[in-house]
Amino acid sequence: MIISYPIFSALMATILAQVIKIPLNYIKTNKWNFKLVFSTGGMPSSHTATVVALTTAIGILEGIHSNDFAISFILTVVVMHDATGVRRQAGEHAELLNQLVQDFNGLLEILKHPNTKNYETKEKLKELLGHKPLEVFFGALFGIMVAVFLFSLYPFPEDF
């Protein structure tokens, strides 16, 4: 086999989690947004799905008492914490800063200050960065399902 089962599981979880964001977003907003395939944030967490699929695959192949599983598990916890913590807060800060710029421009318009630059011409900060805990939970569940499904598809040769 050209690619290892854990890496294949992680890659498939990433791709599938990103693709599934499109119909899930359509159900929520009634609009197709194909840019979600390349975006961070949203349901489910593809970062979580990726690392959980990797960890699950390692656990299946090597057992949960292996050093590889332990390392992967700790990194998975770090990624999941980061998704719901730092990245989510950064997204909330971006949302607030975008609102401040909009309010500032509105104030300038009211005051009719001709020599002040309109800051809204700059690109808005990306607001969809992190995840709600539910998005991370479903990312983890999705990652487990992908790894288990791929393992059940075919018997792996010894050198896989």
Write the SSE topology.
Elements: H1 5-29, H2 46-62, H3 67-84, H4 86-111, H5 133-153
Helix pairs in contact: 1-2, 1-5, 2-3, 2-5, 3-4
If you had to describe this structure to a student in words, what would you say it looks like?
With 160 residues, the chain is mainly alpha-helical. It has 2 domains: 107 residues, no CATH class; 44 residues, no CATH class. Helix content is 67%, strand content 0%. It is built from 5 helices and no strands. Helix 1 packs across helix 5, helix 2 packs antiparallel against helix 3 and helix 2 crosses helix 5. It is elongated, with a radius of gyration of 21 Å. It starts with a helix and ends in a 7-residue tail after the last helix. The mean pLDDT is 82. This is Divergent PAP2 family protein. It comes from Salinibacillus xinjiangensis. Keywords: Membrane, Transmembrane, Transmembrane helix. Pfam families: DUF212. InterPro entries: DUF212.
Briefly summarize what is shown.
By secondary structure, the chain is mainly alpha-helical.
Please state the structural category.
mainly alpha
Number of strands: 0
Distance between the termini: 6 Å
Strand content: under 5%
Helix content: 55-70%
Mean pLDDT: 82
| Rg (C-alpha, Å) | 21 Å
Write down the domain tally.
Answer: 2
Overview features:
2 domains; transmembrane helix; 160 residues; mainly alpha; single chain; elongated
